[in-house]
C-alpha cells in the first residue's frame, strides 16, 4: 500500500521468468481483483478510512533469460469497490 495525494494505492506485484504463461500482469484476473478489493475494503474499514479514495495498481516484472528485468506499471489497473 502507498499514498498518492489523497488516495490509498494498493499495489499487486506479479513476476514471470519469460512470457510462456503470458505477461505477469495478466495473472491479476477478475477473481484476484475482487479479492484485492475486498481486502482493501476490510483494511480501510478497520482503520476508519472508509471515505478514503482507493486506487489499484499492478506492477509486472518479467525476467527474460540473459536480459535485464522488464518492469511494467499499470496505474489504476482496475475499478475499485463500485465494480463488485
Q: Keyphrases for this structure?
A:
84 residues, alpha+beta, Trna Endonuclease, Chain: A, domain 1, four-stranded mixed β-sheet
Written description of the protein model:
It is elongated, with a radius of gyration of 14 Å. The two termini are 20 Å apart. The chain has one domain: Trna Endonuclease, Chain: A, domain 1 (3-Layer(aba) Sandwich), CATH 3.40.1350. The chain is built from one helix and four strands; from the N terminus they run ββαββ. By secondary structure, the protein is an alpha+beta fold.
Secondary-structure topology with pairs:
Blueprint: E1 2-4, E2 7-16, H1 30-46, E3 54-62, E4 70-74
Parallel strand pairs: 2-3
Antiparallel strand pairs: 1-2, 3-4
Q: pLDDT under 50 segments (min length 5)? A: none
For this structure, the quaternary state is single chain
CATH architecture: 3-Layer(aba) Sandwich
Largest sheet: 4 strands, mixed
- What structural class should be given to the helix and strand makeup? alpha+beta
Termini gap: 20 Å
Number of helices: 1
Order of helices and strands: EEHEE
Shape: elongated
Number of domains: 1
User: What's the count of strands?
Assistant: 4
CATH class: Alpha Beta
Helical amount: 10-25%
Radius of gyration: 14 Å
Beta-strand percentage range: 25-35%
Amino acid at each position: 500500500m502507498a499514498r498518492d495525494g489523497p488516495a490509498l494505492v494498493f499495489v499487486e506485484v506479479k513476476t514471470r521468468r519469460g512470457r510462456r504463461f503470458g505477461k505477469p500482469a495478466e495473472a491479476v484476473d477478475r477473481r484476484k481483483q475482487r479479492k484485492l478489493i475486498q481486502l482493501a475494503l476490510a483494511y480501510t474499514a478497520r482503520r476508519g478510512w472508509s471515505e478514503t479514495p482507493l486506487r489499484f495498481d499492478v506492477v509486472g516484472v518479467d525476467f527474460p533469460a540473459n536480459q535485464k528485468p522488464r518492469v511494467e506499471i499499470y496505474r489504476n489497473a482496475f475499478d475499485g469497490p463500485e465494480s463488485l
